[in-house]
Amino acid sequence: MTEEMVYTCKFGGSSLADGPRVAKAAEIIKSDPRRRYVVVSAPGRKTSSDRKVTDLLYAVHENKRLGLDSREALDAALRPLEWIARDLNQWEGFHKLVKDLRDVVHTTGVSVDFIASRGEYLMARLLAMYLDWPFIDAKDIVRFTSQGQFSPEFTQRIAAEELAKYPRAVIPGFYGAIPEGDIKTFSRGGSDLTGAIIARATSSVLYENWTDVDGMMSADPRIVPDARPIDKVTYRELRELSYMGASVFHEEAVIPAKIAGTTIHIRNSLNPESAGTRVMHESHRGYHPVVVGIAGLKGFSTIHVRKTLMNEEIGFARKLLTVLADEGISIEHMPGGIDALSVIVPTTSVLNREELIIAEIKDVCRTDEVEIEHGLALIATVGHGMWRTPGVAARLTGALAKQSINIKMINQGSSELNIIVGVAAADYELAIRAIHQEFFP
Ligand code: ASP
Fold first, then answer.
1. Res 224: pLDDT
2. Distance from C-alpha of 350 to C-alpha of 359, rounded to nearest angstrom
3. Residues 116-141: pLDDT tens digits?
4. pLDDT tens per residue across span 177-219
């Protein structure tokens, strides 16, 4: 089999939420011999009232931490996996794995990352049994530093070497290990990242990311009912949209795929006939719509800083940024005027410590006025096609003006890939609908 024939598939939690869904995923895998490496999430939710296995596993750790009995919580977390094992007639091989896990959790002190990773571990073991494929543990091929930083190049080397020994394999997503052997997880949704890492390590031409929606949408369909699926999106557009809340794909997972030049195909395992969204390099798409999608998030605050003759003071911004960095506050945007700067930050990073932050800025930067205002929502309108296209910002601001929505902040980088506007959180939904209507009439 030639290298061009390799696909990596990742199945998200909703595609593995019960026995029939896992059986369906297995059918998809077996229907194309190019699907040779499979990465799985822990079983997810079937309905919005269910809880994800990973959330239930975090609850186990929390109970242990508080000195409470964790048996019931662990039973609840393992139940979906046990049902799947029974549905798929794999109970005989599987029951020992859950018993072993119960013993370890109840008799030893285990880390939060270890417990959280067990949903993926058990799901991968189960699917490997059902498919009769080899199981490769992510702890042996996905490596973090002792400080917990992901090591992409080391991982690439060891994963490529190990996986080359197996024509096909099932691998758990979401975690790896530090050199000392302890389990370390990625941030939530990290199985997308594992999938991209495996796609790179196996030189896969295609990374199929199977989920429960028909692909990336032009806007959140809960806000814009006539949002439409995006058929093709570039790596950079996807990163911008997912960073700004389009939650179908983890934004960091684009990076390994981009390095390897692997096309990502986001697909719906509950509706495999739908076209899905293909993610690729700019040069491969050929055409560039002015806007491919709109995404946004609430929950931002603005730190307004005013000082007369700020423009003449060299190093002013550095001092301000140092105060914020020392306080562990990450910055989203920093628009400004001659005597004023506004720093947009996540509300969670400043809430209930406004006075302290204001006092520190006043002290270090010797400013006249500092104020923190909450309740900002950011909306990103994204598309490579706006590059060198006059009138895009006019259309966007015009659409908002028609709805009497006030723009509190506007930011367009010179790469002209997106325009970000900040509006009052109360105007957020209306603003998204107005922008969508303008670019997707
Ligand atoms: N199960 C993990 C989570 O819920 C990782 C993943 O599904 O990607 O975040």
1. 97
2. 13
3. 999 999 999 999 999 999 999 999 99
4. 999 999 999 999 999 999 999 999 999 999 999 999 999 999 9
What's the alpha-carbon Rg for the chain, to the nearest Å? 24
- Checking DSSP bridges between strand 277-280 and strand 7-11, what pairing results, if any? unpaired
Query: What pLDDT sits at residue 4?
Result: 55
Q: Give, for ligand 1, the residue of 15, 39, 50, 54 to mutate: max count of ligand atoms closer than 8 Å to Cβ.
A: 54
Q: Which atom of ligand 1 is nearest to the CA of 55?
A: 4
Mutate to test the pocket of ligand 1, among 9, 39, 45, 52 (most ligand atoms within 8 A of CB): 52
> Residue 233 and residue 215: Cα distance in Å, rounded?
11
Pairing, β 35-40 against β 7-11: parallel
336 C-alpha to ligand 1 centroid (Å):
38
How confident is the model at residue 1, as a pLDDT? 44
H or E stretch including 53? helix 53-65
Atom index in ligand 1 nearest the CA of residue 120 equals 1
Closest CA to 300 of 324, 332, 322: 332
> For residue 38, what are the CA distances in angstroms to 18, 380, 386?
18, 33, 37
pLDDT of residue 50: 87
Q: 158: burial class by Cβ within 10 Å (0-12, 13-18, 19+)?
A: middle
Q: Taking a C-beta distance cutoff of 8 angstroms, is the pair 81, 122 a contact?
A: yes
Q: How many whole angstroms from 168 Cα to the centroid of ligand 1?
A: 23
pLDDT at residue 69 in the model: 85
Q: How far is the CA of 183 from the centre of ligand 1 (A)?
A: 15
Q: How far apart are CA 330 and CA 211, in angstroms?
A: 30
Other C-beta atoms closer than 10 Å to the C-beta of 317 total: 16
Place of tokens 């990076």: 255
Name 421's Cβ contacts closer than 8 Å, sequence gap at least 6.
378, 379, 381, 396, 397, 400, 407, 409, 410, 411, 431
Determine the residue type at 22: V
Residue 342 phi, psi (nearest 5): -120, 130
Contact residues of ligand 1, CB 6 A cut-off: 13, 41-42, 52, 54, 119, 173-174, 188-192
Nearest-atom index, ligand 1, CA of 193: 8
Q: Where are the beta strands (DSSP E) in 231-384?
A: 232-234, 263-268, 277-280, 293-306, 340-346, 369-382
Residue with tokens 């758990």: 172
Q: How far is the CA of 55 from the centre of ligand 1 (A)?
A: 9
Encoded tokens for 291: 């806007």
Name the one residue in this structure whose structure tokens are 């995404």.
295
